[in-house]
Design a protein that fits this description.
Layout lengths: L1 E3 L2 E3 L7 H7 L10 E2 L4 H12 L7 H12 L2 H8 L2 E2 L2 E2 H19 L1 H9 L5 E6 L2 E5 L5 H9 L4 H28 L3 H36 L8 H13 L5 H15 L1 E5 L2 E6 L11 E6 L4 E4 L1 H12 L1
Length: 314
């Protein structure tokens, strides 16, 4: 069997699932997944997907995303107070969130180890069977900043922020449980707020960041604050082929085309792709993103697209 990031992929030389499970260490629950009869590339892709930050896909993010941001407050409160098998739904939601968060953190083990390596007072104890007991986790703002500074891209910065929020949520929940057991009302309220804060950041950091970037792009509009050569050439070509379409209709056409083609190269040194925003279902949702060779990405929203098209018409 080939070991892939703490999961096992069965090969043609392996036999039944029973044999495969028997050969695993005693705690199979400590593994991300067990794959059988799958191609290696597919298995590795599935494992990679577990470690990404798509917030409407992974349970650890989708659960709080749904109850905190997608449901109106009184409906969410009513549902969370509903009893399911003798427990309030909110208790089940929190338990499931913590379980899936531990899983997500586990899949991102290398980043976790990097974070812990910055903690001077950390104590690690190898329990065998690829289990490690971690004690005395103390993360300061300075450690946090050093960890975030290691990001090499916006996507990695988002992931590292979610790592910090996930770790903080699990630690704060432990303090919350202790405060409840001690009947300390003030501490319980404080830890509940801090736990919910980290839960929300872990669940929706990417969506919030995308939304803020979209608002910033709208405020910039068509102002010449960056190199838009690729976007200008791209929008110009679509406008020339479809001059009679309204701005919203042309935007929809571009969205449809780019979601099928992934990206296009409107001129030398530039590519353009479309990013659909899963938390925005309006007709003008999404971002057109220009990338310059060996350069930064430059996103624009619908309003900035309209401004560029107005320049094209001149």
């Amino acid at each position: 069997m080939k070991k892939i990031n703490k999961a096992y992929l069965a090969t043609e030389r392996d036999s039944s699932m029973t044999k495969i499970m028997a050969e695993l260490p005693e705690n199979p629950g400590g593994y991300s997944a067990v794959f059988t009869s799958l191609e290696q590339k597919f298995a590795e892709k599935a494992l990679k997907a577990l470690s990404e930050t798509e917030e409407d896909a992974h349970p650890s993010m989708f659960i709080p995303l749904s109850f905190i941001f997608r449901k109106p407050p009184f409906l969410a409160a009513q549902k969370l107070q509903t009893e399911v098998k003798g427990k309030k739904l909110y208790e089940i939601v929190i338990a499931d969130f913590l379980m899936h968060t531990y899983e997500w953190l586990f899949v991102n083990e290398q980043l976790i180890l990097e974070l812990f390596s910055l903690c001077p007072e950390l104590q690690l104890e190898d329990l065998g069977h690829e289990q490690t007991l971690v004690r005395n986790i103390h993360i300061t703002p300075e450690i946090e900043n050093a960890f975030l500074a290691g990001a090499k891209s916006r996507q990695e910065h988002i992931k590292r922020t979610k790592i910090l929020a996930g770790v903080n949520a699990t630690l704060t929940h432990q303090s919350l449980v202790a405060a409840v057991e001690q009947n300390d009302a003030q501490a319980t309220a404080e830890y509940m707020f801090l736990f919910t804060r980290s839960m929300a950041q872990f669940a929706a950091h990417k969506s919030v960041d995308d939304g803020l970037n979209r608002q910033a792009a709208r405020r910039k509009g068509g102002s010449r604050v960056a190199d838009r050569t690729g976007l200008f050439a791209f929008i110009q070509s679509y406008h020339q082929k479809n001059p009679r379409l309204s701005d919203s209709a042309l935007w929809k056409l571009i969205r449809k085309d780019l979601l099928q083609r992934k990206k296009v190269k409107p001129c030398a040194g530039y590519s353009v792709k479309f990013y659909p925003e899963p938390t925005d279902t309006s007709d003008t949702a999404g971002l057109l993103i220009q990338k310059k060779s060996k350069g930064k990405e430059y996103p624009i929203g619908f309003e900035a697209f309209r401004n560029i098209r107005s320049e094209v018409r001149k």
